[in-house]
Amino acid sequence: MQLQLKNIHKTFEAGTVNENHVLKGINLNLEAGEVVTLIGGNGAGKSTLLNCISGALQPDIGSVEIAGIDVTNWSNSKRAGLVSYVFQDPKMGTASRLTIKENMAIANRRGHKRSLRRGVQKDDLQMMRDQLSRLGLGLEDRLTMEVAYLSGGQRQALTLLMATLLRPELLLLDEHTAALDPKTSEMVLALTEKIIGEEKLTALMITHNMADAIRYGNRLIMLHQGQIILDVSGEEKKNLTVVELIEMFKQQSGSDVTSDAMLLA
Ligand SMILES: Nc1ncnc2c1ncn2[C@@H]1O[C@H](COP(=O)(O)OP(=O)(O)OP(=O)(O)O)[C@@H](O)[C@H]1O
Question: Which residues form the ABC transporter domain (predicted)?
């Protein structure tokens, strides 16, 4: 099992008037190679769930196993050797004032305490060029350019490459194309699919776009008020339509999706 979540609970501001029980007993198993899209309305708990997996947040109850290792009590940085993530904001996954080469060098040390003094060797440079050329964006010829000068899409593509440079046991994508225009989003999603496929990664991807949730991955999960209310895979998922998905949401949750960002698909 690549990911095993057992009875995850998370409450924010416990014991105050603002107490918010966000995750209510999440159980989820992901087999190696599964690519899961995660949808749900605003505030459903999607990011909180990913944060509990990455270690950015600690669940109050429950356990997290990644690639057979119980990481429940591991810090975010200790989990970095196992889990990689890409966030919505293209500025978050890369260091603006550093060059593409320097960013790639950092990615090449993810989860390792290897000395920063080692510097970039000649064979590292060739590896970087080869890796960057996979993106098809010509970044391999701009190794000494500061990342700040890249477009949002180029930057997110680079972030994705960096997150997978050292093969993670699990790749977490938190609406990683939501800040991009539709065409660029499509480009980054196509690259995401390519990299996940080539590296045979296990991935969990949050999206607000229902059409993308159906199109990508082999399994789709819907979260509502901190619980999994829908879990479809294989042919059933492939044959889903956005209209059916909205209908299922209404049935399962007992509420409407009107004015919800889920409809922005
Ligand atoms: N650090 C925090 N402290 C207090 N409340 C939080 C914190 N993080 C999230 N929340 C609350 O938890 C709830 C779930 O948030 P979360 O970001 O997980 O939802 P989401 O499903 O990702 O929503 P969206 O699609 O809007 O991003 C929200 O009500 C949010 O305000």
Answer: 3-250
- How far apart CA 140 and CA 158 sit, in angstroms, is 11
Q: Taking Cα atoms as reference points, which of 29, 88, 79, 34 lies closest to residue 54?
A: 79
128's enclosing H/E stretch is helix 122-133
In three-state secondary structure terms, 112 is coil
What span, in angstroms and rounded, lies between the C-alpha atoms of 86 and 252? 29
Whether this model's pTM surpasses 0.80: yes
Report the residue among 8, 16, 22 best suited for mutation to probe ligand 1: largest number of ligand atoms under 8 A from its CB: 22
Q: How far is the CA of 44 from the centre of ligand 1 (A)?
A: 7
- With a Cβ cut-off of 6 Å, ligand 1 is lined by 12-13, 20, 22, 40, 42-48
Per residue in 36-68, pLDDT (tens digit) is 999 998 899 999 999 999 999 999 999 999 999
Q: Is 200 exposed, middle or buried (0-12, 13-18, 19+ CB in 10 A)?
A: exposed
Predicted ipTM > 0.85: yes
Residue nearest to atom 24 of ligand 1 (CA): 42
Residue nearest to atom 8 of ligand 1 (CA): 48
> DSSP letters along 82-101, please?
TEEEE-S-TTTSS-TTSBHH
- List, for residues 108-131, the tens digit of each pLDDT value: 987 666 555 556 677 789 999 999
Dist. CA 80–CA 54, nearest whole Å: 8
